[in-house]
Design brief:
Two copies of one chain form a homodimer. By secondary structure, chain A is α/β, with parallel strands linked by helices. The first copy, chain A, has helices at 10-21, 36-44, 53-58, 72-79, 81-84, 114-121, 136-140, 158-171, 187-191, 194-204, and strands at 2-6, 25-30, 49-52, 62-65, 88-91, 96-97, 105-106, 126-130, 151-155, 178-182, 209-215. Chain A has one domain (2-204): NAD(P)-binding Rossmann-like Domain (Rossmann fold, 3-Layer(aba) Sandwich). The A-B interface holds A 105-106, 111, 144-149, 152, 179-182, 186, 188-190, 192-193, 195-196, 198-200, 202-204, 206, 208-219 and B 105-106, 111, 144-149, 152, 179-182, 186, 188-190, 192-193, 195-196, 198-200, 202-204, 206, 208-219.
Chain lengths: 219, 219
């Protein structure tokens, strides 16, 4: 698929690299056209592109929001409502406010999650929330963590969720471990998981972990 | 131990029954002295007591707050700061506001969790947050759910946490599955897990589940 990854931080580069490695046509987008990380990444990945948020979004089928949660609306606005229209927008970000130090606070938008806020701002986009409950290394290589840990998916567009489920499968997520939480309001639940993730990160001394859901009668 | 369980709802009765069955001296407390559920429960459990929040708290060593999260401060105020002083207060409640329907909202108290709010209100109490991330049947019988699912513990008083860890062990929780998240601010993280719990309850069609934490390098 043609995938635009917005955000040149660790998460964006990790996802862009994984998708490029799977044969997808990837464009890594940043605020500016000459972002050093994006230029370097594109040089290292023949066939991949880089450019502004709008540049990489224009011809993409899937747009991955891997920007920081507090700048995501600005990044998507730069990508442009026209560019996003009809496209699957995979929101993997978390709206964490570090301004008062660690641990950060999870920001809400008049009670809405960031994913819902994005959907409200860009009604033509088909927003799916996923992958935001784990560190980026686990996103692209679930096998590095033992056990039947899961990835959550939420969104209002079933066909868009099916596209995302396919992409997750490509990254190594077995279908049985992709948990569909329902509509996009479920992003409130997964974004609010961040405080527990951060606590466990502190308690375990590693971010290389993930959550599993154990259910009675299903082993 | 002498354990006061505050709250005669399903959670309170379940915990009171489990602790009584383990040989603890249990008092089930309610707002009024003649609460029908408490009277019935005490009749069914010879040796156990019932009474007002203050009655059962007076001689207890451990006080379990199993009241609804939005009335917990009132219940503990009725139990009395004098009665709570020096005691381990095990807060298993969640501050869920159902006033706008389902799913409920998790209430915070000027950014504090309910457990922290209780601690601030009763500085003489030794508050430990635990068991609030699962349904009551799993609390008292972890073996009913397969897998290495966990119970979280948080609190500022290490000795109090050790008492609670001992009680959890009695309920069937192996030490390796009791996860100490650190101080009582961690209750913000576990209380904010409720939205995800409620979503999974909807997606799975059962509350008989729990979370596990899978960690790289530890199987």
């Amino acid at each position: 698929m043609r995938i635009a990854v917005l955000g040149t931080g660790e998460v964006g580069r990790r996802l862009a690299t994984a998708f490029a490695g799977l044969g997808h046509q990837v464009g890594l987008g940043s605020r500016t056209a000459d972002n050093a990380e994006a230029v370097k990444w594109a040089e290292e990945h023949p066939g991949a592109a880089h450019g502004t948020f709008a540049d990489v979004t224009e011809d993409a089928e899937v747009v991955v929001n891997a920007t920081g949660g507090l700048v995501s609306l600005a990044a998507l606005t730069a990508a442009g409502a026209d560019g996003l229209r009809g496209k699957v927008v995979v929101d993997v970000s978390n709206p964490l406010d570090f301004s008062e130090g660690f641990p950060p606070k999870v920001v809400t938008f008049d009670g809405l999650s960031l994913a819902e806020r994005i959907q409200a701002e860009f009604p033509g986009a088909r927003v799916v929330k996923t992958l935001n409950t784990m560190t980026n290394t686990v996103m692209v290589e679930p096998g590095r963590v033992p056990g039947d840990h899961v990835v959550f998916v939420g969104g209002d567009d079933e066909a868009a969720k099916a596209v995302v489920t396919g992409l997750l499968g490509g990254l190594g997520w077995p279908a049985a471990r992709i948990v569909d939480l329902g509509d996009l309001t479920s992003a409130r639940a997964t974004e609010q998981l961040m405080p527990l993730w951060l606590r466990l990160y502190g308690a375990l001394g590693t971010g290389d972990f993930n959550f599993a859901v154990c259910v009675s009668g299903r082993s």
